[in-house]
Design brief:
Blueprint: E1 28-33, E2 37-45, E3 50-59, H1 62-69, H2 74-94, E4 98-103, H3 105-109, H4 113-121, E5 127-129, H5 132-146, E6 152-157, E7 162-168, E8 171-178, H6 185-189, H7 195-204, E9 218-221, H8 223-235, E10 247-248, H9 253-262, H10 265-269, H11 276-279, H12 282-296, E11 301-304, H13 308-315, H14 319-322, H15 326-335, H16 344-353, H17 361-374, H18 385-395, H19 403-416, H20 433-451, H21 457-460, E12 464-468, E13 471-476, H22 486-498, E14 504-508
Parallel strand pairs: 1-4, 4-5, 6-9, 9-11, 13-14
Antiparallel strand pairs: 1-2, 2-3, 6-7, 7-8, 10-11, 12-13
């Protein structure tokens, strides 16, 4: 019998674990005491593919005092502690299973940072201060968690620091934390036209490993970068694309900077999803991005929704859980309880493996995701089944998948749920002809398998399909002969045509 084979990605830990080991489906909380904001995020979902259940922040501006005189100001500490009191009550109410409270650059660099940490701990929140290296590693691990095959440099921009991390092969190779954050970019720019680029180049120079990242993607982590991506996405007319793994060309940065400089603040605030607090920083963020592009010469700019907080979660997982495919873990967690028959999607996937024998794991994982999502069709009206399934593929909270790959899964789900056109995508989404044909073949194969006694695993496990003598050969056991009606033959013929074969033969064995 065929077996279902999912892609396996291996990631190596390169830092100690701080959170206790977690089990799947637990609520895990992170409080991130940053230089600009203090944020509480509570995660749920699959341990390998976490989703946000609750997210709130307080803008305390702890880093502004540190920049001014090396100390956390009394006013910013009061705002932060008041927010942390509220967070402590929220944690108790939501009964988080595991919690990690970390402070980053502002508290780390402040002469009175230790006093502030003790005040936080007095609230019953066991806060700890991350070193610059620990912060960089966690940020890099966050990118790896979302994109296990990432190869390049991750750049995590916070209020008081910029972490650069060389990632490859699921591991953090080198890392550094630079004393440039969004809160001090304006002061550096005020020193002269090219001051920001020169200071960044000077800080990077001792780290020869950065040269290895030239010509590779630059993975952008942090709210300031995501705000730039929102602006780019808006003006590029690609509003339906997700921000995670949103990419654009480094050569577009100067034009983006000019556009931001010409825009009024109200116009930027009106952009869908644009945080109002990021608008005033957009010009400085783009200036820093331009300096990074000049110094690092990346091939692509790619935003990543995961960073420090998700990296801390990822580091708390055992090696076996880390190695799981984040896309399939997330889709499986969301869809398995809603499968009409237990094990149906996996049985369909295994049945399809015998047809699509030459697919590498990086491709077959997308087919597996399509099998899982297509199984939700019974929940909605037949008239909207294809559209709803495609929307779930395009806009679900999945990680480990690019916009192009989402589009392929969506097209496969459309074909699987009976959309005869099968090629409709919202504006901004594109696939090439090869991807389109592959997705249609997947969808028609899923549709055929779903006709075999309703896609019951017991029947699929007794049937076989392969390609021989220029035709699609499907074998059914004698006791299933009645299933081979005209409707099943029509679906078999449609699949054979899409596969470029002469026809389909359903045999009883």
């Amino acid at each position: 019998m065929p077996v279902c084979i999912a892609a396996v990605f291996v990631a190596n830990r390169s830092a100690p674990l701080y959170m206790s080991r977690v089990k799947p489906s637990q609520r895990r909380a992170i409080i991130d005491i940053g230089s600009n904001s203090v944020r509480l995020v509570i995660f749920g979902g699959s341990a390998r593919s976490p989703v946000i259940l609750h997210n709130e922040k307080v803008v305390a501006g702890l880093g502004r005092g540190v920049i001014a005189d090396g100390r956390l100001s009394r006013a910013s500490r009061a705002v932060a502690l008041e927010g942390l009191r509220r967070f402590a009550l929220t944690l108790k109410a939501m009964d988080a299973d595991a919690t990690d409270i970390v402070a980053t650059a502002a508290v780390r660099n402040a002469t009175n940072g230790d006093v502030f940490v003790r005040a936080v701990q007095a609230l019953g929140l066991p806060a700890r201060v991350l070193s610059g290296e620990e912060e960089a590693v966690a940020s890099g691990m966050g990118v790896i968690s979302a994109n296990p095959q990432a190869d390049g440099i991750a750049a995590d921009l916070g209020g008081g620091s910029l972490e650069l991390v060389r990632i490859r092969g699921g591991a953090v190779l080198q890392r550094t934390s630079l004393p440039i954050g969004i809160l001090n970019v304006a002061a550096i720019r005020a020193e002269g036209k090219d001051a920001l680029r020169k200071q960044l180049a000077l800080l990077v120079r001792p780290h020869g490993w950065v040269e290895e990242g030239r010509g590779l993607p630059l993975h952008l982590v942090g709210g300031s970068w995501r705000s730039l991506a929102r602006i780019h996405r808006h003006h590029a007319g690609r509003l339906s694309l997700p921000l995670d793994q949103y990419g654009f060309d480094p050569e577009e940065v100067p034009g983006l900077a000019q556009m931001i400089a010409r825009s009024d603040k109200a116009g930027l605030r009106a952009i869908a999803g644009m945080p109002s607090g990021r608008v005033a920083m957009a010009d400085d963020a783009c200036a820093l991005l331009a300096a990074l592009v000049a110094v690092l010469a990346p091939s692509d700019l790619v935003t990543c929704a995961f960073g420090l907080r998700e990296g801390l979660l990822y580091q708390a997982l055992d090696a076996e859980t880390q190695a799981r495919d984040p896309l399939l873990e997330g889709v499986r967690f969301a869809t398995t309880p809603l499968q009409p028959i237990a094990g149906q999607a996996d049985a369909i996937m295994a049945w399809l493996d015998c047809i699509f024998t030459d697919e590498p794991p990086a491709v077959s994982r997308l087919r597996h995701a399509a099998c899982l999502i297509a199984g939700q069709g019974w929940l909605v009206s037949p008239d909207s089944r294809a559209e709803d399934g495609a929307n779930l593929a395009l806009h679900g909270k999945w990680i480990g998948i690019s916009a192009r790959e989402r589009a392929m899964v969506a097209l496969a789900v459309r074909a699987a749920t009976g959309d005869s056109g099968g090629a409709a995508l919202p504006s901004g989404w594109t696939v090439d002809e090869t991807d389109l044909l592959r997705a249609r073949r997947w969808g028609l194969a899923i549709r055929f398998a779903g006709r075999l006694a309703g896609g019951a695993p017991s029947v699929l496990n007794q049937s076989r399909a392969d390609v021989r003598d220029g035709a699609l050969q499907i074998a059914l056991p004698a006791e299933q002969e009645a299933l081979a009606d005209a409707g099943l033959q029509r679906r078999a013929d449609a699949l054979a045509t899409a596969l470029g074969l002469d026809g389909a033969q359903i045999r009883i064995s």
